[in-house]
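Hey,
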Amino acid sequence: MGRIVAGVGTSHVPAIGVAVDLGKTQEPYWKPLFDGYEPAREWLSKVEPDVVILVYNDHGTAFSLEVIPTFAIGVAREFPPADEGWGPRPVPIVKGHPELAWHMAESLILDEFDITIVNEMSVDHGLTVPLSIACGEPKEWPFPVIPLAVNVVQYPPPTGRRCFDLGRSIRKAVDAYDEDLKVVIFGTGGMSHQLHGERAGVINKDFDQRFLNDLTQDPQRLVELPHIEYVREAGAEGIEMVMWLIMRGALGDDITEVYQNYHVPASNTAAGLIILENNS
């Protein structure tokens, strides 16, 4: 059967991808952030997952305000990098795993999650930046990826509890898959940031670090956080952190925190990273 061995939570700040693509990772501004990513890259290269499920949000490339699925799963064999207005990122095409993706779609829908099935889509920085953070600049990504897009752009986004429960359902689906696959799940987005209005540039270090710590120490508190607390404490775009709860829900109760990193600023936001290994 399949098994989810670990979860990774990470920000997907677009400027991080730009720094990689333009060769700026060792410049004084960026070097401390990318130094913090090295342990994660070493860890992932040792784990060697067969598949990565990557939870992210689309930023108006695959979806628009015309069609807004709450949860959508990509079942294609490949997903090209999206053109977000200045050309696609110069990164490898993302290879999918349609067999597991279709199995997950069926399992999740029968488990009463109304997942939108996407047969063709491009993927933007929300998905490719976490891959760059975790893998650097390979000629090909070292594993297939199943994209799972979540609406955190147009109100109302799903609650933290719904996201956590979706993670549990994903774990059940992977456990029931009839091939021995080692799976790592990524929850991405955030951390505290706001891109518009009077609070543009807000960063709440205390909120972010408590969120990171409670992924291990008190996930139930995070499950119960209402939308308004994310917006008030972490800025309008801080709501993206509910996607990390899908990752956390896909793990068991018995986990080990392998690594945590937090850096301010990364562009005009905070950048967090955590690795949790499943012990059960």
